[in-house]
Structures are given as structure tokens and as C-alpha cells.
Amino acid sequence: MGDRLNGKVVLITGASKGIGQGLAVGLASQGAVVGVNYKTDHQGAAATVHRVEEVGSQAEAFQADIGSKQEFEQLVETVYQRFNRLDILINNAARTRFGPLSQVTEEDFNDVVDTILRGPFFGSVAAADKMKESGGGSIINISSIAVRQIIPFHSSYTMAKGGLESLTRQLALELAPAVRVNCVAPAATSNERNWTYDPDFDLKWASVTPSKRVGRVQDYVGPCVFLASDESEFVTGQILTVDGGWTLQGYTPDMSGFDFSKDRQRD
Q: Is 45 helix (H, G, I), strand (E, B) or coil?
């Protein structure tokens, strides 16, 4: 286990699976104690805690719907009281609700915006107050390459992620110098959810990416460890795109056959 984050406490939203789970394990491997947030997937959160413990660190699962101002603020308070400090917040939780514009309902819209943008606004403010009590900290927002190069069927998701990138810059300005705020924008990433859209998801996205492969969860660990650590103490307000060069051209595979029918049913 490394020591770049020794003594630091990180709260990661949506950490029961996917990128959030990978970041939890990755930051724990550098010494961080991890607050594992989940909304409904208690089993996944427990698996994340177990994986963190396997790399030699400490973690605990905390249930909250971070799309709610009240629940996110209470989550921050609970984690702070449990570990006596909060140094890092990673706003990772997201909702997708992909599909044609004409099929986006008001429920879809609100779910996406609340989870990706509204909650992180209030949660970040609450977390920053706690970080200041410990001498400062780092907030890392997880955006998407969809903001840089518009992708079909991603309307409310892209809009909300674009707002999150603007929020990153706004918070960086207003919370400086005590709290740094940066953003990582991942590529299309190999995971179970994306395989349900299309079993050939990895191959199709690799074909349009200069690095000739799809993104992997592990690709985002190093950038987040850097932004969470004191090594990046003079870095704030930045959007770091981690995409194997995809945004250099921005070609998308044919997504007309992707099955988004279950997207609104996800926990």
C-alpha cells in the first residue's frame, strides 16, 4: 500500500459499483480512509468496503440519496462525525436515463439533474465547511467526455455534466485557497452497465478512440489520487479529460442499435 493519502478521509458518492468502487479501492491503496456512499445497492457497497479492507485500509458504507440537499448534507455530517475529519469529496454518483429527446420525461430530467448537479452543489458546500476545519481539502467532480463532443441520446446527462464542469470552476474560485476543486472527465468505459446497452460496446468505442481501446475504471484512479493529494496543491478549477485521445476527433460509433430500454429502471 502507498502513502500518498495517509491520514486523509475521502467520501465517494455512488461507490457501490463501477468507477466509484474503483476509486474507493484506488484511493484506499494510497492510505485513505473511505466513506462509501450508496443509494440502494447495499450489497455493492459492502463489496466495496471489503475490497478496501483487502488493500489494508478502512472503509464504511453510508446510505443516502445525494440528489437530496438534506440527505447529502446529513451524509457529510455523518461521515465527519464518524472519522473526525473530511479531506476529500469525490462527486461520482450519476444517473443516465439515455434515449431520444422525445422520450425524456420530467421524471427523467429531474432524476439526472438532481443526482449529477443539484446534490453536488449543496454537498460540496457542506463538505468544504468541514474541510476548512481540518485546514483544507480537495473536491473532485466526475464529468464525462460527452460535454466536449456531443453524443446522441445523452441530452439531459450531457447538460447536467456540463453544469457540473461549470460548478467546478465556480467552486474553485469561491472556495480558494482552503479547498481545491477539480474535475475528471472519463471516456466511454468498460463496465457491466454499458455492456447491457450493447455486448459489443468495448469494441465499438475502441474503434473510434486513438488509443485503440475503451476506457477502464483503473484509468481514473491515478488522476484522482493526484488531485486528492498534496502534490496538486497549486491545481484548482481544472477539467482533466482522460479519454485515450477520443476528444481529439470525437467520432461516435453507431448507437442506433443500443438498448436503452432499462435505463430508467436502474437503482
A: helix
